[in-house]
Amino acid sequence: MAKPPRRAIKAGDKAGKGTKVRKRKAMAKPKAARKGSLGGLTTGRRSRKPAIPVSRTKRRSPKAFRASSTPVIAARKNAPAIRATPAPERPPRLLRNSRGTAAALNLLEKAIRLIHHKNFRRARAELDALIENHRTEVEIVAKARSYCQICEREERAARKPASPEDQVYTLGIIEHNRGNYDGAITHFRQTLLRSPDADYVYYSMAASYVLKGETGQALEHLRKAIQLNEANRFYARNDPDFNSLHENREFADLVGMVQVRSEPLI
Questions:
Q1: Are strands 41-42 and 37-38 parallel, antiparallel or unpaired?
Q2: Which of 121, 176, 197, 207 could share a disulfide with 184, CB 3.0–4.6 Å?
Q3: Cβ neighbour number for residue 17 with a 10 Å cutoff
Q4: Residue 179: which region, alpha, beta or left (left: phi > 0; alpha: psi -120 to 50)?
Q5: Alpha-carbon dihedral sign for residues 36, 42, 44, 49
Q6: pLDDT value, residue 3
Q7: Where residue 190 sits, what CATH number does that domain have?
Q8: Cα distance between residue 113 and residue 106, in whole Å
Q9: Distances from the Cα of 95 to the Cα of 45, 105, 140, angstroms
Q10: Among residues 123, 73, 130, which one has the least CA distance to residue 102?
Q11: Distance in angstroms (rounded) separating the CA atoms of residues 215 and 179
């Protein structure tokens, strides 16, 4: 007897006894393409490895944290040696800070007091000692030389009747050294009324004018002093009272100073 043909069992049919049902295999879903693959096909690029989990550090106590918070910098090999910064050079010694300034000023003040008391011989001795023993004190020595001229003039005048113009000139020198340049110039002008050819009076007036800041008047009177006495050219060149005129071209030509000019290199 021939077997009947099998029919496909539908979903709504009940399977009978002994009937075998073929289950359809579910189609596998396509896997999502990983990074580094194209449509499921691996490319030549390497996929990134997963990050290695870092183990959490143990919680440290505040004391341990403070102790280890200071960074320690290790010295590198072949590192250049650190040289200590040299100490700055000392500033040049000023006149007021020099050792012999106090002694030189004491001698100068003593000589001025002797001049006021008309003791010119002792005053000259004090001034000579100052000039001999304190040559480095340039400004004080320059003042001492001007007082020496007063002593010499007064000693010469002691041998003959004292002239009023010499006394007036002495007062002018005293006022000049005190810094009263207007008063000194007034005394010098009075002296010139009686001694119009006194070169030293023109020279002293030039020094008072330059310290007062009147350069034109200073150069005019200095030129007259040099015309009357050529030695005043050398005195003005080395006199500290005329230091402010060293950059003045007219003064340099007048006293014979050589100015060094710095020309730009091309």
A1: antiparallel
A2: 176
A3: 4
A4: left
A5: positive
A6: 55
A7: 1.25.40.10
A8: 11
A9: 84, 11, 9
A10: 130
A11: 17
149 and 127 in contact (C-beta within 8 Å)?
A: no
- Over residues 3-12, mean pLDDT: 54
Q: What values do phi and psi take at 88, rounded to 5?
A: -65, 145
- What DSSP assignment string belongs to 28-59? PPPPPPPTTEETTEE-SSPPPPPPPPPPPPPP
On whether both 174 and 253 belong to a single domain, the answer is yes
pLDDT (0 to 100) of residue 240:
86
Task: Give per-residue pLDDT as tens, 88-137.
Answer: 444 434 445 556 788 888 888 888 888 877 788 888 888 888 888 888 88
Asked if residue 241 and residue 210 are part of one domain, the reply reads: yes
Largest CA distance in the chain: 188
Does 35 map to a domain?
no
Residue 7 within any structural domain of the chain: no
Q: What's the domain range around 113?
A: 99-161
> Is 54 part of a structural domain of the chain?
no
